[in-house]
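# nightly structure sweep
# worker-07 picked up a monomer target from the shared queue
# config: single-sequence mode, recycle default, output format = structure tokens
# input follows
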Amino acid sequence: MDTRLLRTFTTVARTENLTAAAQRLHLAQSTVTAQVKALEKELDLRLFDRLPRGVVLTSAGCEVLAQAETVLEAESRLRAVAASVGGADGRVTGRVTVAAGETLVSARLPGVIAALRRSHPGIEVDLRTMGTATAIAALRTGEVDLALLLEDEAAFRDISCTPLAHEPLVLVCSPEHPLARSAADAPADWAELARQDYFLHEQGCSYSDRFVDRLLTAAGSAQPRITRFGSLEVARSCVVAGLGLSLLARTNIADALAAGRLAQVHGPRFPDVAVQLARHRRRWLSPAATVLTAELSHHFPQ
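# output follows
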């Protein structure tokens, strides 16, 4: 049996949407549909009910899903073992796929990859930019081996989450903004902050969501003007241009603060956001993934 069909099937099962599965697998939707039909024909089973809102597993499909994930896990383990012992010099080799939000992908993980290339040139790291919900789904389907989550609390029955570090957060504005010129001994309070304009990371970003909730509470019946982007760079550029404020991880704006393109707003203290290292509980951690896990701890503030 072609395990590619099983991987496509498990991805469709987890996303319950052919289009979303095609995007995850980097395939055309017609290819995903054809592969699902091919698996159904080979097994002589109807695996999905097609509904207007998407697809859902049949009872037979639920049974097949559990076994398909076991097969894919065995395949992943076999490939990892072969890769790790394939080098004549005994060095650890292999590919590790890591999911993380843009905050970490842009600021922390490039340094991790650079360090691994020096110490373990046989390890290849494939980075995927994903929010928490997407990353958890990808861990379940085996699309990624590890995920880094910016979440203070992360509890999943099948996913193990280990606190790795904390990222400091900073409320920033343009140096010409009135709040940048406020004295440190007269910081802005929440009522004043609720009257400002904001450019924040997209919905689903844990620290941005928490900040918005606090702003809305402070604003009462008023509605703060909040624009959210899928790109941290766009949000940061809007703030540099003097259009408003943003709450960002210090690691993403350290250079702009040092160069004077951004200024820190004196106001309420924002608690650091936790970085969680997540992996599937039932899946084996390859030697390459183990090396990467050890390297991660050297690139985050403790």
